[in-house]
Amino acid sequence: MAKDKKFVEEITPRSEDFAQWYTDVVKKAELMQYSSLKGFMIYKPLGYAIWENIQKNMDAMFKETGVENVYMPLLMPESLLKKEAEHVEGFAPEVAWVTQGGIQPLQERLAIRPTSETLFCDLYSTIVQSYRDLPKVYNQWCSVVRWEKTTRPFLRSSEFLWQEGHTAHATAEEAEARTIQMLNVYADFCEKYLAIPVIKGRKTDKEKFAGAEATYTIETLMHDGKALQSGTSHNFGDGFARAYGIQYTDKNNQLRYVHQTSWGVSTRLIGAIIMVHGDDSGLVLPPRIAPVQIVIVPVMQQKEGVLEKAEELRQQLQKAGFSVKLDDSEKSPGWKFAEAEMRGIPLRIEVGPKDIEKEQVVMVRRDNRKKVFVPMRELTERAEQLLEQEQEDMLARAKDFLNSHISDAHTYEEFKDAVANRPGFIRGMWCGDEACEDRIKEDTTATSRCMPFDEDTIDDKCVCCGKPAHRLVYWGKAY
Amino acid sequence: MAKDKKFVEEITPRSEDFAQWYTDVVKKAELMQYSSLKGFMIYKPLGYAIWENIQKNMDAMFKETGVENVYMPLLMPESLLKKEAEHVEGFAPEVAWVTQGGIQPLQERLAIRPTSETLFCDLYSTIVQSYRDLPKVYNQWCSVVRWEKTTRPFLRSSEFLWQEGHTAHATAEEAEARTIQMLNVYADFCEKYLAIPVIKGRKTDKEKFAGAEATYTIETLMHDGKALQSGTSHNFGDGFARAYGIQYTDKNNQLRYVHQTSWGVSTRLIGAIIMVHGDDSGLVLPPRIAPVQIVIVPVMQQKEGVLEKAEELRQQLQKAGFSVKLDDSEKSPGWKFAEAEMRGIPLRIEVGPKDIEKEQVVMVRRDNRKKVFVPMRELTERAEQLLEQEQEDMLARAKDFLNSHISDAHTYEEFKDAVANRPGFIRGMWCGDEACEDRIKEDTTATSRCMPFDEDTIDDKCVCCGKPAHRLVYWGKAY
Hints:
The structure is a homodimer. Chain A folds into three domains: 17-277, 2-Layer Sandwich (BirA Bifunctional Protein, domain 2), CATH 3.30.930; 294-386, Rossmann fold; 406-476, Translation Initiation Factor IF3 (2-Layer Sandwich). By secondary structure, chain A is an alpha+beta fold. In chain A, the strands form five sheets. Chain A has an eleven-stranded mixed sheet, sandwiched between helices. Chain A has a five-stranded mixed sheet with strand order 16-15-17-18-19, with helices on both faces. The two termini of chain A are 37 Å apart. Chain A has helices spanning 2-9, 18-28, 45-64, 78-81, 85-91, 117-127, 172-192, 239-244, 268-277, 306-319, 333-342, 353-358, 379-403, 412-421, 434-444; strands at 32-34, 41-43, 68-69, 75-77, 96-101, 104-112, 136-145, 159-169, 199-202, 214-221, 227-237, 247-249, 255-257, 259-266, 294-298, 324-326, 347-351, 360-365, 371-375, 406-408, 425-430, 447-452, 471-476. Chains A, B: Homodimer. Chains A, B: Keywords: Aminoacyl-tRNA synthetase, ATP-binding, Cytoplasm, Ligase, Nucleotide-binding, Protein biosynthesis. Chains A, B: Belongs to the class-II aminoacyl-tRNA synthetase family. ProS type 3 subfamily.
């Protein structure tokens, strides 16, 4: 047991130093590691498998709404990136530039995509002619590069994996509807698969995307009380269409500009899973997204019949559709338990000689570590029940945590007190003046996270300047 | 019907100009288009969906053999790329270089990965310490950049999509076994999913991968008689391990170098599908890889009940697990037929008022265009039968084509005559001297494709120089 303890002891307790705990979990659960190039990460098998499951399930949701996947070039000429002024201004400081291809220096330098708005615009300008060609609802899964000075696994790095959807529509209404539709897909996905509740809302102009008319966001709350922007959906109006000349003839043969949207989520979602659900024993993965849902640990596996029975159970569970692993390595059971907990496997099944005699197994949920004895004949039904309940409980706990970490502030004193003493979101009215956002950020480091949908006002004065205000804002410190 | 004819007439007949036919199919079937950056392609929805299906099915085959997916950085420092001399020599002329990140020029220039051997070596040198850490069997799906002067959709471009597997093993035997295992996975995949038979064999030293001890290949034959290298698997021995310092301690506590392999296939496979199966009406997709397997075309769709019945059939087929599309657009049925053929949809179902009256539908296979009347109550069974038969027939036809396009040459005169007059592979003995390969290439443009497994010799003299020879080589013009 000494060894097992050591395994766990290598993680800093979450309450002691959240940032160090996060780094420890990423490392010990073998999710990711730094490469020899600063800011560039290596997604290891478990980290990448989580991303694959996110992709698979979200992509199915996309396709149900009519999304088609494409793949656009990695590089774009500088002149193409520069066509939309606000957009290039937003991204230029972060772009990696290619200046030589093969043995020849290039005549024009090329940007590695920091995002692909400009490439999609270029494509749409060539393939959209008539209203019959609309809408175009394309998406791609790829990596993008944005040169970052400070990096943190999954949350901020110079290269990251994401999806970026880019659409073109005949009307402003249709574009707005698609923007909201995709935000809702993100919100539903987070709740259903990741067991993470979200706050949906609109970004202030200060926080919106470079070149967008409106940016909508899902904001999630980490266990340390900091917010994580977890997905965004942008309505571009016809701004890009005008810059890139994307026009179509409508039914009356009139030439019109298209209206565009874009929307994306990234591997930040893996950061959210870690920071919402993880505990002092490591990762806790929601069953619906876990690459391995069940681990079987044989106890006294050298005894006759134990490994055979464990393998029989593994096959039975696999046949029933679970992703299951039998850990028949030479480590001690305690070590295997600790390792499986570190890697967040939702359900552990123990089986030893005594269990076999009694025709039972032990099932232990990862989230609450509750042990139950289950007759072998009920193996698959009970595994399914426990995993479903675990998924449900994880969401319920995350919802409770979120709801108990939202506080209202009516005055600036209350606001500053909340930022200092009550981790989480702070609801406060805002007059609409960017100066108040700036002041709040300077005084407290909190930023406006979003103006929520469907919420009443809680006051009629700006929480910062006291002037009349009718916009409710969720504020918070954020990653 | 005039319109429908026009739709098809835009393709050059395959027999008239194969290269132009290929380009026309790629364009008219909307598989891909050029971006505004020379050499960089846009994978459109149909082209990308075929790649997604290749990925999905091949990835499942990989995982059955124990492969784990990871994601490695897009960029690597020049010093890292340069550690293995032969390797860097092979790739340096094709590398795209990043010299600026954000607003700062970089101190060391960075290569966009042309392949990721060096990154995996760097990783393995940090995570492999003991024999217990072996084997490592990692793979990634990504894009790579190799600056090309001439480009051709799917076959050659400056950026392309692929997978690259990289493994590290304790022994030379295990590495060799993995190299051959993955080549067999590729061969099986091509036969089973793409209905494309392959020739398996080993590359000569002249044609092997930069830095490899041995390169194995699957070679396929296109309809114009040219060969396409469709997948390769390399055994690196311990060469990279020595250059990058990848060592482990064995069971006897001895420090040893690992033995490595790498293996890859790319979107070239899509080129192979087009050029093996396509015809003068466009693409012909094998049912197991087709993004849409069945298209339903309503006839006289304005008549009451036709669209409703068509939709009912669509749902029935979808429920049975087929990927099915109902084309209820306002185009004429003839136009829809031509479009569905162009896009290679394996099975077309027509249903009109008379069919509804007779409770039947018309089913038309894409490959042979045979029409059958099918009672509606047998809809799903017959669709399945027809698709299975089509998949089988496509493979059988491709096999016949391959076998009837292999000729033997015993003298150099016979060889030159075969290259000039008999499209396909030429089997000829080789003495092992690179000078003969060079001469053959210069005289005929044919190259050594591979030294096949499990084949007898057909002569005892080199087909080029006449000296003693005991190696049989498949020669051919190639893409």
